[in-house]
Specification:
Fumarate Reductase Cytochrome B subunit, metal ion binding, transmembrane helix, 366 residues, 70% helix, 3-stranded antiparallel β-sheet, mainly alpha, elongated
């Protein structure tokens, strides 16, 4: 009864008034994101200014000390604490790494992530949410098992935590230290480091398990190229053909299977420095790790948008395990043709769940 009342009240609004409200709050979100992106400019400038960063990180280093380092002089004050090491504790290769990180990697990360946020906001404001073309039938198709949903959400949660802690390690000093002071900043950076170092290996292992589990459904097919040419249905009158996974989902899968595994591997090099890798190796691993992770974070924002508020019905698949027939037919028509005979009403699903005490099936129907 409540739903009927709300629907009737909404329908009493004139169409022009609904459009005003819709565009108004979208404009508010857009302006908020644009202001946030403008606020990133000083942060990028601070990162690119290596002298300013050095003054914050290690104010005691003098020009004479750098002269000694560059000339190759070593001594008790500059010797590495590692056993049998010929490195200087302060070394020229470390300065090269810092220049690359501050002048290139950090600005790249801000541009990639901030740019993606602005693009998503503009897309949502101009195009809006992708609604289903036809009404829902009320009949559902099973898509994801409880095990796969749990694995997906665990990997996704770890990815978000690692992204936030990584961004804090890279940029947080210029934001939170200024806002909250050294005491709070010290606690934040310490917690970020511990979480990042200990959750990273767990994420790597579970990511490999997830990639192996999804491999069969993400083998590229000829129709995936057509999907990209039609921009996933943004161009043309009809949705492009798609199997269980469409072209965009396959692209995200293979990005994780390539760049994602490189990020994991470089993270292991940094996390376990007791296998004989040199300082130079770890510096390059740090650069590779940061570039890959920042790029993945930017693309992940698009994936999160499309899978949540960007497309009607998509989130239901990973929360309930089921999708409506209409959603399957419009977004994954080739898969729909394979499984359409397995569609069930919500009553049938509820009865099946109660009989099986949980999920309707232990695996995806064939």
């Amino acid at each position: 009864m409540t739903t009927i009342t709300m629907t009737s009240q909404r329908s009493e609004r004139p169409p022009w008034l609904r459009n005003v409200f819709q565009r108004g709050w979208r404009m508010g979100i857009l302006l908020l994101l644009l202001v946030a992106s403008l606020g990133m400019a000083p942060l990028a400038d601070a990162q690119a200014d290596t002298d300013r960063e050095m003054a914050t990180a290690a104010p005691g280093i003098s020009a004479e000390q750098w002269r000694q380092v560059r000339s190759g002089e070593t001594g008790p004050n500059y010797r590495d604490s590692r056993f049998d090491s010929n490195y200087n504790l302060i070394n020229a290769s470390g300065e090269t790494w810092r220049q690359i990180r501050n002048r290139w990697v950090s600005p790249f990360g801000l541009i990639a992530i901030g740019g993606m946020i602005v693009v998503i906001a503009l897309f949502y404001f101009i195009v809006g949410r992708k609604h289903l073309d036809e009404p829902r039938t009320g009949r559902k198709l099973f898509r994801w098992s409880l095990l796969m949903r749990s694995l997906h959400w665990t990997v996704a949660s770890l990815f978000i935590v690692l992204a936030l802690t990584g961004l804090n390690l890279l940029f947080g000093k210029f934001v939170f230290r200024t806002l909250f002071g050294d005491a709070v900043w010290a606690w934040m950076i310490s917690a970020s480091k511990v979480l990042h170092n200990y959750l990273g290996p767990l994420f790597g292992v579970l990511l490999v398990v997830l990639l192996i589990s999804l491999l069969k459904d993400n083998i590229p097919k000829k129709h995936d190229w057509v999907w990209f040419k039609k921009a996933g249905g943004l161009t043309g009158k009809h949705h492009p053909d798609a199997g269980f996974a469409n072209g965009g989902e396959k692209a995200w899968y293979w990005l994780l299977a390539t760049v994602g595994l490189v990020v994991v591997a470089s993270g292991f090099v940094l996390d376990f420095p007791n296998y004989g890798q040199s300082r130079d190796t770890m510096q390059w691993a740090n650069i590779i790790h940061a570039v890959g992770a920042l790029g993945l974070t930017a693309v992940a924002l698009g994936h999160i948008y499309i899978g949540t508020i960007g497309t009607e019905g998509s989130l239901e698949a990973m929360t309930t395990g089921y999708v409506d027939e209409t959603w399957a037919k419009e977004h994954h028509n080739l898969w729909y043709e394979e499984v359409k005979d397995q569609a069930m009403s919500e009553e049938e699903i509820a009865a099946l769940k109660s009989n099986s005490s949980g999920d309707a099936s232990a695996s995806k129907p064939s």
